[in-house]
Amino acid sequence: MSVLAHGVGSRTDLPLPVSFVVVGGGLALVASFVALGLLWRSPRLTGARAGRPVPGWLQAFADSAVTTGVLRLVVLALSAFVLLVAWVGPESATYNLAPWVLYVTFWVGLVPLSLLFGPVWARCNPLRTVHGGLERLMGPAPFEHVLPRLGYYPAAVSVLAFGWLELAAPDRSAPHRVAIFLTGYATVQLFAAACFGAGWFARGDAFEVYSRLLGRLAVLGRRGDGRLVWRSPLNGIAGLDPVAGLWAVVVALVGTTAFDGLTRTTQWQSSQVAEQGAVGSTLGLLVTVALVAVLFLGGSAIAGQVAGRPDAADRYAPSIVPIAAGYAVAHYFSLFLLDGQTAWRLVSDPFHTGRDLFGTADLEINYTLVSPRLISLVQVFAIVGAHIIGLLLAHDRALVLDVEGSRPHRPWVAQLPLLVVMVALTSSGLLLLLGT
């Protein structure tokens, strides 16, 4: 039994051959590129200044200390419970709630939660709650002034660490492995926060950073003045500051998800690398992330050279956030709806004692909840749509850099390498998902 098994569609579930879908996805990007060049000739995204204020009662509820306190206490209690189950609950992942919560309910659930409601995890992060209590005892962080220089690179390391656990570690579904990871991860994060301050979590905690990035695509967000507003997701992403290392986080997110898709193909499963077990999977994970990094850094470097901007990688990194979101939706949509039902069954009897606390212990998993064809269609639209949104963001960013750069009036040329990058990511993403 594998907690990580995905209920994905196959090429026979599509109304068109996979080759048609892949070519069509690439052509959709090229057509979008041409249309943007003809119709979108000056920067239009206003970023942090955009948005229509929400009703006063919603603002008051969202900013209430009571709301924050209740959220933090509930999430802290649930997190402690899951950790307890991981340590002392059933030894088999079939009956232990913790692996299902970590890999499905939490990690996959962060995607719709953040896309709908913004960076909620930053508001209720249990590590922030624990650190807040410890901070009163320890006093000020001694290296808080160093944190800005670290950028997002610590978060990229955290994403890779979790990606390795999820996709390459031996016995990754075993409850004791989950318990060790959660305990070790919390210890490292809390120690880092003690050194660098509470701001560490927004730069080094993989889960909070992931939620914050995806939250930029939510229609509910905050302006630069802190006002809660309804906004275009494009303006949310456009307002993301190009902090150093942002590119590394989005590359790690896209690369790990792409490797997850690769491991589902028969070519990988029958390869000599896969036969090496954890060593082969680790190597495959690192190579996949490295390939995505080379592709993106190469494309953005050429674009930056054309525009006269050496920091183009972090400047263009926000345009990859929708792609990371699209990959997550495409890969984990079915996993969340189908395998996610297991958590509801196990929560009624978390210690496998024969109890049925919520009346769901005998729940039969409904694998007909979504059809294979619907799964395949969601995958196609998520991948292609995300890349089109990314291309639009890159186009607007190229126009901004064209105005700011030392070599103006060349935005079309600057975008060509990024178009190649996105066509490559679209094609490979669809092939990994829909191929065999």
What order do the helices and strands come in, and which of them pair?
Blueprint: H1 18-39, E1 52-53, H2 56-63, H3 65-88, H4 97-106, H5 110-117, H6 120-124, H7 126-138, H8 147-150, H9 153-167, H10 175-196, H11 201-204, H12 206-215, E2 220-222, E3 228-230, H13 233-238, H14 246-262, H15 266-269, H16 278-307, H17 312-316, H18 321-339, H19 341-346, H20 372-404, H21 411-434
Antiparallel strand pairs: 1-3, 2-3
Helix pairs in contact: 1-20, 1-21, 3-4, 3-7, 3-10, 5-12, 7-10, 9-14, 14-16, 14-18, 16-21, 18-20, 20-21
Can you walk through the features of this model?
The protein is an all-alpha fold. It contains 21 helices and three strands. It has a three-stranded antiparallel sheet, covered by helices on one side. A hairpin with a 5-residue loop joins β2 and β3. α1 runs parallel beside α20 (372-404), α3 crosses α4 (97-106) and α3 (65-88) packs across α7. The two termini are 21 Å apart.
